[in-house]
Amino acid sequence: MIRHATAADIPAIHGMVRELADYEKALDEANATEAQLHEALFGERPAAYAHIAETDDGEIAGFALWFLNFSTWRGVHGIYLEDLYVRPERRGGGHGKALLTELARICVERGYERLEWSVLDWNAPSIAFYESLGARPQDEWTVYRLTDGALAELGG
Hints:
This protein is an alpha+beta fold.
């Protein structure tokens, strides 16, 4: 079952964010607090949204955290999937596909023309899964990022 996350899900989401960061070999970079996640998802001006995948007995199996982006070429919003995570013991049960299906449904319902995300190039199981759904890599684009000192220097 897929449902919208609630404030009560914040501890579980926070834990899964840390599990995902550990899987991606970047646990030391996962500094978000439960309070920050709560503010981003449920604050006065929510900047992100989350869906929860549950097992039949109500256990949280995974989550998708996303936000709106905008295409100047298409003139409409899309969804950028920041995190998709299914706990290792729950993989293969259809939870990841169900989460992506829900986000695709939202896109279609609202007239959004893109559902996009990034995947680490070494993550072969996820790449194979995404491609099995019809997703295709955008190899002609290179992601750039400013953080920490470089961001402070440019913005300072």
